[in-house]
């Protein structure tokens, strides 16, 4: 390479390397495509407090729920790739939307860079406290008898809650009626009042209704019972369905082109926060498992979920176009 060109490239890269090395020097904005009080919001507030203390800079959360996360994702796509604006996105936003839409204003994989893992969680089968269904088999048998009249809710067509229920229908050879809601609080209020018969929900998202005894958990979609909820059987224990699991993950994404040094700094700081005993205890209380990993682990999880859900989306003819 010509020595002049080499020197020019070095000079151009020095300012970028310099500010990236010193990141952060100002307030960081975290876009959250979920309502306040939801699991992702709660975790990011806990982690954000730790980041603010370590960085000596404010970490501000910007809740933008609705529109299937597109408001938040569009915000991130338009942001400067400098690490000062990033988002907490989940399985649906990154792995599922490209399978559900033929036309999108952005490409979740091409337009965003994974910066860090955050947490994973599995789901409970949730019914209202006054529901006539006391066990998972009660629910399954009712679904067989009612022939599509049994209803289940989710936080949107193509959401993990919707696809999980479709997987349960396939495993039990039943058909139920899907009732999508715009936001999670509306969904679980409807479950608690019996407006819909059941839904998948995490301990974090349904915690207030569960603690106030407005909903019950019939089964847990994990390989073993959840710590703190030992009285709730797994789906496999509560039925003749073997190996049924339903989980989601939440990770941190920035605009495409975020410098590697910034990505590493954000990841290291988040891993430090998640490894803190106090933070870990707060998450585990709500059934959230700190996801200790790197940006490459987010890519692997995305690839696994695309493979996992593409079949059920196609066979159930689920589309958002």
Describe the structure.
The strands form two sheets. Strands 2-1-3-10-4-11 form a six-stranded mixed β-sheet, with helices on both faces. A five-stranded mixed β-sheet has the order 7-6-8-5-9. It has 321 residues and is α/β, with parallel strands linked by helices. The chain folds into two domains: 25-120 and 249-315, 3-Layer(aba) Sandwich (D-Maltodextrin-Binding Protein, domain 2); 124-245, Periplasmic binding protein-like II (D-Maltodextrin-Binding Protein, domain 2, 3-Layer(aba) Sandwich), CATH 3.40.190. Helix 2 links the parallel strand 1 (28-32) and strand 2. It contains 13 helices and eleven strands. The model is unreliable at 6-14 (pLDDT under 50).
In short:
Helix content is about 45%, strand content about 20%. With about 325 residues, the chain is an alpha/beta fold.
Give the overall shape. globular
Q: How many domains in all? A: 2
Beginning-to-end CA distance, first to last residue: 50 Å
The side-by-side strand order for the widest beta sheet comes to 2-1-3-10-4-11
Order of helices and strands: HEHEHEHHEEHEHEHEHEHEHHEH
The largest sheet is: 6 strands, mixed
Mean pLDDT: 91
Q: What fraction of the residues are assigned to beta strands by DSSP?
A: 15-25%
Structural class: alpha/beta
CATH topology of the largest domain: D-Maltodextrin-Binding Protein, domain 2
Question: Which residues form runs of ≥5 with pLDDT under 50?
Answer: 6-14
CATH architecture group name of the largest domain: 3-Layer(aba) Sandwich
Corresponding CATH superfamily of the largest domain: Bordetella uptake gene, domain 1
Provide a count of the helices: 13
CATH class of the largest domain: Alpha Beta
Helix content: 40-55%
Number of E-type strands: 11
**How large is the radius of gyration?**
21 Å
């Amino acid at each position: 390479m010509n020595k002049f060109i080499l020197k020019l490239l070095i000079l151009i890269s020095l300012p970028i390397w310099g500010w990236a090395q010193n990141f952060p020097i100002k307030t960081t904005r975290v876009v959250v495509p979920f309502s306040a009080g939801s699991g992702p919001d709660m975790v990011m507030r806990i982690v954000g407090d730790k980041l603010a203390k370590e960085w000596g800079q404010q970490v501000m959360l910007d809740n933008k729920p609705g529109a299937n996360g597109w408001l938040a994702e569009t915000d991130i796509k338009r942001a400067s790739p400098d690490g000062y604006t990033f988002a907490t996105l989940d399985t649906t936003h990154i792995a599922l939307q490209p399978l559900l839409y033929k036309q999108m204003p952005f490409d979740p994989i091409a337009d965003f860079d994974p910066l860090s893992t955050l947490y994973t969680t599995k789901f409970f089968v949730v019914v209202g406290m006054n529901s006539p269904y006391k066990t998972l088999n009660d629910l399954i048998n009712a679904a067989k008898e009612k022939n599509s009249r049994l209803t289940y809710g989710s936080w949107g067509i193509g959401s993990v809650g919707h696809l999980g229920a479709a997987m349960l229908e396939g495993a039990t050879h039943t058909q139920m009626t899907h009732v999508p809601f715009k936001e999670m609080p509306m969904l679980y209020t409807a479950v608690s009042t019996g407006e819909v018969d059941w839904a998948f929900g995490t301990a974090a998202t349904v915690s207030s209704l569960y603690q106030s005894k407005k909903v019950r958990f019939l089964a847990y979609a994990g390989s073993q019972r959840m710590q703190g909820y030992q009285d709730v059987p797994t789906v496999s224990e509560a039925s003749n369905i073997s190996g049924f699991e339903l989980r989601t993950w939440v990770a941190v994404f920035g605009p495409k082109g975020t410098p590697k040094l910034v990505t590493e700094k954000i990841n290291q700081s988040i891993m430090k926060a998640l490894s803190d005993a106090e933070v870990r205890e707060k998450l585990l209380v709500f059934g959230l498992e700190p996801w200790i990993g790197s940006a490459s682990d987010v890519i692997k999880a995305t690839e696994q979920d695309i493979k996992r859900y593409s079949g059920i989306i196609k066979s159930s003819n689920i589309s958002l176009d």
